[in-house]
Amino acid sequence: MRNPVNANAPALTIARYTLKGYIKERVLLVVLVFALLLMVSSYVLAPLAVGAQRKIIVDIGLASISVFGVLLVVLIAAGSYSREREKGILPNILSKPVSRVDFVLGKFLGTWVTVLLVMGCMTVVYFSVMLVSRTSFNGVIFVAVFLSALEVAVVTAVMTFFSTFTSPLLSALFTLCAVVSGHLSADLLEFAARFGGAGFHAMSSVAYYVLPNLALFNVRSEAVHGLPLMNQYVLSVTVYGVFYTLFALLASALIFRRRDVSA
Amino acid sequence: MKALLRRNPVILLAGAAVVLGLLLSTVWVQKYRYRPYLHEKLYLPSGKFVREFSLGYREVVADAVWLSAVQYYGDFRKGNHDLRYFSGLIDIVTSLDPHFTFAYLFGALVVSEDAGSFEEGTDILKRGMSRNPTSWQLPFEIGFLNFVNRRDNALAARYFELASRLPGAPEYAGRFAAFVYSKAGDSGSSIRMWEEYKEHADDPFLKELAERYIEKLNRESAGKKAGSDA
């Protein structure tokens, strides 16, 4: 019998199986349909928004791609580790020539690519709505979509980290908390610097540097109003996103190596 | 199901009564849909608060509040209420999306001309200018309001001149400055300025607003003429 795990790239094999598993899930379709309806609704809403017709179409489309991408990660990935452990699939996979690091990497890639496919569908519909409504494009819109995809990679890595050692419910909750804090951490740091004491400032600084700074990935305002965006900014955020993702995956792998995976 | 209904005509009757009741109550409740004593906008939090709570999706929340502001103004035009919460809505929209220039322009026009708060209207525009220093429309509208509302020609001309020097400013911004320098403020020249404004406005809604203010000025000047004739 042929070994289903590719010995040269076991992580890719795990990613492929993860992707196949997610595609069968109904929640994927439900989220996709809901997101597409929301995007199309912006076309209907636009005439009601006096003076903001273009803005509404661009805003709703970009926000839908970002918010549904993050939501989908939480919905599909929260229970994947524990589900495979409970069904006995995990010990079975790890008995093959697959290291735990490969498994973590494969699960991450599978989840991220699944969400990217959904985001890709949303982007196609978004651009179609813009074309039909004759909304003008600018280059920053493409950058905004790219950075949303990168934000989803960071959130997926954070989700992977929590999934390796907590229950599905807790990992979903922790990831959502990380997303909310990640959007607020810069403001919190500024607030602490102005009004807080030394203790609060120290706590805010720790939160700011440890949590992912997701506000960096948000260039939707620049995209909507056609504001200039420096290439250096996009490059630095991309490098930050890649390294934060790698860091979260490394931490996940380190924890997962010590976990008991028996069903 | 059919057999069940045949056996239990009471269920059939009860079902029909419920459907009928729902239809009638739906029609009846429409009469009381609008409750003028309810000021839902009273509970709108400040712009800074909404800004923090909208996380990274400030622009979309700004859109939702903008739709609400437009609807609120529409209700004012129908005579359903006054404009006491309008500037609060504009403050939230512009705090959430500081680069949404149209909100400053529309908000200032309505606050200055409909609500009669000239200072508050120009404050909205000045706030917009500090956040969008390259937008020519904002100083242009301050100049415009100073001319048609306060008849302060010197200040109006300074703002028109400032607007004419900013990137993308049309040729008529400079023309307005020259015109204002040469004219004494009277309602006749205000109407002509509004007509120019209407002609050059990009948005049909701004054109409609300008038309409304022209009619208002015409009515006022006709009233004054009738008073002096009498």
Structure summary:
With 263 residues, chain A is mainly alpha-helical. Chain A contains 11 helices and no strands. The longest helix of chain B is centred in the C-terminal third of the chain and has 26 residues, at 204-229.
Give a verbal description of the structure.
- The complex is a heterodimer of chains A (263) and B (230).
- By secondary structure, chain A is mostly helical.
- Chain A has one domain (10-257).
- Helix content of chain A is 78%, strand content 0%.
- Chain A is built from eleven helices and no strands.
- Chain A has helices at 10-23, 26-45, 53-77, 80-86, 89-94, 100-132, 139-163, 168-195, 198-210, 220-225, 231-257.
- Chain A is globular and about 60 Å long.
- Chain B has 230 residues and is mainly α.
- Chain B has a domain at 135-225.
- Chain B is 74% helix and 0% strand.
- Chain B is built from twelve helices and no strands.
- The longest helix of chain B is centred in the last third of the chain and has 26 residues, at 204-229.
- The mean pLDDT of chain B is 82.
- Chains A and B meet through helix 3, helix 8 and helix 10 of A and helix 4 and helix 6 of B.
Features:
heterodimer, A: mainly alpha, 11 helices, B: 230 residues, mainly alpha, elongated
Specify the helix fraction band of chain B.
over 70%
Uncertain segments of chain B: none
Q: Assembly type of the shown chains? A: heterodimer
**Strand content range of chain B:** under 5%
Number of helices of chain B: 12
Fraction of residues in β-strands of chain A: under 5%
Q: Can you count the beta strands of chain B?
A: 0
Helix and strand content put the structural class of chain A at mainly alpha
Note the total helix count of chain A: 11
Uncertain regions spanning at least 5 consecutive residues of chain A:
none
Proportion of helical residues of chain A: over 70%
